[in-house]
Structures are given as structure tokens and as C-alpha cells.
Design goal:
This protein is of the alpha/beta class. The chain has 19 helices and 15 strands. A seven-stranded parallel β-sheet has the order 3-2-1-4-5-6-7, with helices on both faces. α12 links the parallel β8 and β9. α2 runs parallel beside α19 and α7 packs across α8. The radius of gyration is 23 Å and the shape is globular.
Length: 465
């Protein structure tokens, strides 16, 4: 029997793999599909019409020894590749600022891995990490589940969450073949190590495949398959389509004015969001923007909109789209990961992308979302080491984003004056970078949006043969 296990780790994985067509395609390609969920089972009520099982996984909490070996593995990986700006930046950001016992320990790992960061030493750290939780009761529970279910293939929809390492270990112990999907465009060239060693890998594009083979030299070329990404598939699915008229009515927009959409980062990297929003709205009020425009702000789904209360009160003319994501579980080690989107929010996002005239954001994947609808993009990076604002200009040096800038697909605004000039220039000539945007989509996504889920399901089925 072909029995597929799909491991859903968090709200974004839920959005990408449950709210796309993957499950409908997978049940056609496999005899049985089981969802192993890092989210509560109650998140899945609408899937009862599909022939599949849902098993909620007990949440693994990392002990100190496991954490220590994981830290060693991750920091060594960053040290090994610190000639990449994003890797080095994460090393700098992660270096402890005080001298607590834990901080001194992390500093000692930094010192040790500066000199010892070979591939074999990283794999040794991973072996010790896995050994440290091998007798844990949750790990034993996972092994029992897999022994009972005996999936013929286990697909992890995210390659990074450390709390899933025991489930991967359990699959390896049970001799179940595994694969993972590289979750986001910046994961390989700027983030730490994967949660463990998988048999097969699904990637967005040839660019991502090349990165995979570079950063993980043990991985063989034939074990990496290019499938595109389900992240953008809802934009071509009929169920998420809604009319322009409905969108304008719902958000109280003026259909005689152009729409500037500012999409926020989450608070950890977006403390400059209110500064940029203020700059745009004041430029509209002062008629520095030479076109008739309105501002729509979409906040990050990883948080609520409470940090914008002051600016909402000050500028009631701003239109807000606060993503309708629900927190499904409290007291999780990564609380944001337990937020899941509603169908309504996916439709709202698609309408925002379809009907906005200009996207402004801080170096976000949202740049790609808007490019898929052929919308011009301005990236705002107002902060640097000199001006006292959060230093978001450093993200321009991250390799995944450097490609976007070098490809001329976006314009960069480093201050308010540049931003206003670029807004006016973009509205004057919105198709100026059209060909560059198309080339960037080809480079980053690599496959047609239509049929993404079918492609992924077929690739997973082929792994089984």
C-alpha cells in the first residue's frame, strides 16, 4: 500500500499545504494519507470529505542537553558559511549580549565552532542531539505511532522546526523514507541548519536546488526535485477568487483612487513599519504624491495589530487589512506558529494583490506575491547603523534579496524623500520594470502556479516507486 504521512508543523504550513489542493491531489496518488499535525486536530474540520486520517502530535519540549547539541550544530553551520552575509548576520544577531551561565555556554560554542565547523563535525553534533532525546517519552510515543501506522513515505512540509526533530528521528529508526519541502526563499542561504537529515528534498526552483547542493554537500543531485511552491497556488484557485466590487465594498475603498498597499513585517524585523506608514499618509495629505491615491495597510499574520493603535487613531483615513488568522493553542514554545489562516483571509489577500496598484514593503516575500500580479514594488529600508532606526538596510545584502535588487525587479527607498519620488515615478510608468519582474518570478519560483499541488503529489508518489 502507498501510504503517505504529511507532517504539518505550523500555521504557514497549514496555509501552504492544507489550503492549497495538495490533499485532494495526494488522495488520488496514495491509498491512504495521514496528517501528522503540530497544530490541534480541531483545525481540520473541513477535511472530513477527503479519505484521510488526522493525528495530533504531542508537543515535544526540548531539554537542556538537546538544546546544547542543537546550538552547536546550528552555530557550526553558520560559521562554516559565514562568507554569506545572511549567515554572518544571523551569527552576529545571535551572539549573547550578557554573561549569564547560558550566554557563556553559547559564547564557548561560538569560539569552538569558529575553528571546528567541518561537515562531519556538524553531523556528529546532530547525532548527539538525536541521541539526547532518543529515550524521551514523546520520542517513544512517536515511534509507537509510526510502528502502528507504517506510512510508506513521510513528507515534512518544513525543514527547520527543532521540535520536530524527534519525529524525524522516529522515522529514521522505523526505516521510513522521508522528504522535506524547503519552506521559504531565504531558508538555505541565510538560516541555520535543517532539523535533521532527510532522504529527499522538494525545492522551489533551480536556484534553490543549486543552493541546496552547495550548503548540504552530502545531498545527491537526484534527490532534489524542483516543484515550485504551494505558497502562491491559491492565486489561481477558483475558490479564493472574489470580485473587485466586493473587495472595494468590504474595505470601504474609493474606486476612483489608486491603491498603495503597504504590507508590514512582524515586530521582530518591522519596528520601522509605523515610520514608513506615517511617511506615506503624510505625503498623501500634503499632496506630495501627484496622483489620487489611498493607503491600504496589511499587517503581518504572525501578530495582531495592537502595535499600530497610535497610528490608527491618528490617521483614520488609512484602510487596514488585519489578516484573519486564529491562535489555535496557547503556551507553545513558538506561539506565532500556532496561528492559522481562514479561507476569508486567503481571499482577502488575493483581492489585495489583484486590485492594488503599488506594493510597498520591507524586503518581504510579498514582493513576489505582488509581482505574480504584475504589480510594481518599492522596498523601504529606512534604518541603518548611523540614523538610530532599526537597521533594515542590512537585509539588502542577504543573498536571496540581492538577486531581487540586482535583477532590477524592485526599487529601493532608503528615506522618505526617495520613497515619495519613487511612488510618483512608479505611478507615471507602472510597467517600467515589467520584464524584470517576470524574469524574477521565473528565477525564484521556477514552475507554473497552475498544477503545483498535483506536481508535488506526483513527485511524492514517484519517491515511493
Amino acid at each position: 500500500m502507498k501510504k503517505l504521512g504529511v507532517v504539518i508543523t505550523d500555521g504557514v504550513g497549514f496555509r501552504n499545504f492544507i489550503m492549497s489542493d495538495l490533499l485532494a491531489e495526494a488522495v488520488n496518488q496514495f491509498d491512504t494519507v495521514i496528517i501528522y499535525s503540530g497544530l490541534p486536530e480541531s483545525c481540520y474540520p473541513k477535511l472530513n470529505n477527503l479519505k484521510l486520517e488526522i493525528k495530533e502530535l504531542s508537543v515535544f519540549k526540548e531539554g537542556k542537553i538537546t538544546w546544547a547539541f542543537r546550538k552547536w550544530k546550528e552555530i557550526a553551520h553558520l560559521q562554516k558559511h559565514k562568507n554569506f552575509y545572511g549567515m554572518n548576520d544571523n551569527l552576529i544577531v545571535g551572539y549573547p549580549k550578557n554573561n549569564s551561565l547560558r550566554s557563556i555556554f553559547v559564547k564557548s560554542i561560538y569560539f569552538f565552532t569558529k575553528y571546528v565547523n567541518t561537515n562531519s563535525s556538524i553531523l556528529l553534533a546532530e547525532k548527539l542531539q538525536f541521541l539526547s532525546f532518543s529515550k524521551n517519552k514523546i520520542t517513544k510515543e512517536y515511534i509507537e505511532i509510526l510502528k502502528k501506522d507504517q506510512p510508506s513515505h513521510l513528507f515534512f512540509t518544513h525543514q527547520r522546526p527543532p521540535y520536530l526533530a524527534p519525529f524525524l528521528f522516529s522515522a529514521i529508526q522505523s526505516k521510513i523514507p522521508t522528504s522535506t519541502f524547503i519552506f521559504s526563499w531565504d531558508n538555505l542561504a541565510s538560516k541555520g541548519r535543517m532539523l535533521g537529515t532527510f532522504d529527499k528534498f522538494l525545492v522551489w526552483s533551480q536556484l534553490m536546488k543549486d543552493e541546496m547542493l552547495y550548503f548540504y554537500p552530502n545531498v545527491k543531485n537526484e534527490n532534489v526535485q524542483i516543484v515550485g511552491t504551494p505558497q502562491f497556488e491559491p492565486y489561481v484557485l477558483e475558490k479564493y477568487k472574489s470580485s473587485r466590487e466586493n473587495f472595494f465594498n468590504k474595505f470601504g475603498l474609493d474606486n476612483t483612487k489608486k491603491i498603495i498597499c503597504y504590507s508590514c513585517a512582524d515586530v521582530s524585523i518591522g519596528p520601522n513599519d509605523p515610520i514608513v506608514i506615517r511617511a506615506i499618509v503624510e505625503a498623501i495629505k500634503n499632496k506630495e504624491i501627484k496622483f489620487d491615491v489611498q493607503l491600504l495597510v496589511r499587517t503581518s499574520p504572525a501578530e495582531d495589530d495592537s502595535r499600530f493603535k497610535a497610528i490608527r487613531d491618528e490617521f483614520p483615513e488609512i484602510i487596514w487589512n488585519v489578516p484573519k488568522w486564529v491562535l489555535t493553542r496557547e503556551n507553545h514554545q513558538e506561539n506565532w506558529s500556532q496561528r492559522i489562516p481562514s479561507d476569508e483571509d486567503i481571499s482577502d489577500l488575493r483581492s489585495v494583490l489583484e486590485n492594488s496598484d503599488l506594493s510597498i514593503n520591507m524586503c518581504s516575500t510579498m514582493s513576489l506575491d505582488f509581482m505574480l500580479f504584475d504589480k510594481p514594488v518599492i522596498n523601504t529600508v529606512f534604518g541603518n547603523l548611523q540614523n538610530g532606526l532599526y537597521n533594515d538596510q542590512r537585509f539588502l545584502n542577504y543573498i536571496h534579496y540581492k538577486k531581487v535588487i540586482d535583477g532590477n525587479a524592485v526599487v529601493i527607498a532608503k528615506d522618505e524623500k526617495q520613497l515619495i519620488e519613487q511612488i510618483n515615478q512608479t505611478f507615471k510608468n507602472p510597467s517600467e520594470r515589467k520584464k524584470d519582474r517576470e524574469a524574477m518570478i521565473d528565477l525564484q519560483i521556477g514552475q507554473n502556479l497552475q498544477g503545483t499541488s498535483k506536481r508535488i503529489a506526483s513527485t511524492l508518489a514517484a519517491f515511493h516507486d
